[in-house]
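Hey team,

Filing this mostly as a record. A colleague (T.K.) asked me to run one chain through the structure pipeline before their review meeting, and I want the input and output archived in the tracker in case anyone asks later how it was produced. No errors, nothing strange. Just documentation.

Input sequence:
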Amino acid sequence: MKLTLNNGITMPALGLGVFQSAPEKTTAAVEAALAAGYRHIDTAAAYGNEREVGEGIRNSGLDRSEVFIETKVWVSDYGYAETLHAWDKATGKLGVDYLDLFILHQPAPDRFEKTVAAYKALERLLADGRVRAIGVSNFMPHHLEQLLATTEIIPAVNQIELHPYFTQPDVQAADTEHGILTQAWSPIGGITFYPGWGEDRRNVMEDPTITSIGQTHGKSPAQVMLRWHLQQGRSAIPKSSNPARIAENFDVFDFELSADELAAVDALDTGVRNGPDPDEAREERFAMVIPEA
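Output structure:
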């Protein structure tokens, strides 16, 4: 299943995410995903595993053109010249000569002038043919308005925290208004049970509504959530390093949720963010230096 971006290129709707995948596990995860049928891999400079993603793609035996590679510029590389160089670093580690989708990882509102300069560098990379599409991540509607007011090319994608307990309808509406594809990170609610992201969280994987829908279709809660994203026109990038789970997450094209089932999942939204607030300045985290190699 492919989605058409606002510049006409197509992108596989379902991809493998490698956030928090240890480098030593990432290559095998990418190989497993590509063997299972995935053709879209999402990584980021800040994940520290771009090199291993590239190795997994090469080991798969697939031609470069068959795999849609998405990666992200980290905040410490924002600025015009800095972001052009971030492309050099990313492609060098991945071992490729172009990127399919290159996006800004955070709006970083405490230094938004550098964010805008970084995005203008993405526009340049697009014009030069070094990337096929450009976009953003974690941009709220007011960040999008600020960006669009001072740049020329509308982002193709906005990657945001999006799962049944946090659906961000205002962000989705703003994306739709501008012709931006919404892409879900933590699409199966991993952020609601990952270690280290706070206590007293409800695990969306254990939600009785989702479990019940899954039983109706003979599918797991993760498969129900991924199907929910796909039927509503979103891209989703579930993360796993377990080959069986990777394959399970891709096995979502042989069933369909009813309108009532989609509405029941929509109704689970709590409005509570689990990941970092995009409006908060995280100076220490933003200062993390991305190595040259």
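Quick notes for T.K.: The chain has a mean pLDDT of 96. The CA atoms of residues 112 and 147 lie 9 Å apart.
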